[in-house]
Task: structure prediction
Amino acid sequence: QVLLIESGGGLVQAGGSLRLSCAASGRTFSPSLMAWFRQAPGKEREFVAAINRSGGNTLYADSVKGRFTISRTNADNTVYLQMNGLKPEDTAVYYCAAKVALVGRYYDTSAYQIWGQGTQVTVSS
Result:
């Protein structure tokens, strides 16, 4: 089965930047959407950003719009999340997810069938 492996998390100062990567391993696959979610302690896992198969359509949560950019490199099945202007409230474990099914809403965790292990992002003030 396909595995998603996140990397690029770390500790940064407020206003700094990080670039997260999500690499797919295993057999070739082409999900309808790839997305980033995040989860802070005591909170629900929330939608951050999504990108379609071609990379031509992107979606963002209002909280990150204008600061984060999702992109993909299809040649190596990698999805990126460029995070600029980081704020302490961005601190969370960030998860990469794949929506293989054609049904389900893009912002619902239940719509995604494959998940990575998560990478910690901590933003200090």
Summary: The mean pLDDT is 94. DSSP finds no helices and eleven strands in the chain. The first strand starts at residue 3 and ends at 7.
